[in-house]
Amino acid sequence: MKPVKRIEIIMDSLDVKMVLQELHDIGITSYSLIRDVVGAGDRGARSGDLLNDAMNNSYLLIACDEAEATRITEALAPKLKRYGGVCLVSDAEWLQH
Q1: Which of 27, 36, 66, 82 could covalently link to 48 via disulfide, CB atoms 3.0 to 4.6 Å apart?
Q2: How far, in Å, are 18, 61, 81 from residue 76 at the CA level?
Q3: Do residues 85 and 10 touch, judged by C-beta distance below 8 A?
Q4: Residue ranges of the domains in the chain?
């Protein structure tokens, strides 16, 4: 197994394009995106059942090395502060196959 950093970001679905562009700009091209994430937080409940993305959340998962994690968090911190969202960074093990 390979040690990696696991970055999980929950954000307003309207901000996904901006975040993905930011990741692309810093050379991050591998990620998983789940749309219509349901939950509750400091901005209230998000139901995920609307016809548009106005009140929906998305979940972004990235597995990367430590240097990439630093680039990601430095690039996204100002955007998350301005637009909201949650970013979790943890250690993980990647099962190489």
Answers
A1: 36
A2: 10, 14, 9
A3: yes
A4: 2-94
- Mean pLDDT value across residues 17-22: 94
CB atoms within 10 A of CB 54: 9
Is CATH 3.30.70.120 correct for 2-94? yes
Note whether 5 and 93 are within 8 A (CB): no
Q: What are phi and psi of 64, to 5 degrees?
A: -155, 175
| Global pTM exceeds 0.85 | no
- E strand or H helix at 10, and its extent? strand 2-12
DSSP element (H, E) containing 46: strand 44-46
The CB-side HSE value for 44 (13 A sphere, CA atoms) comes to 4
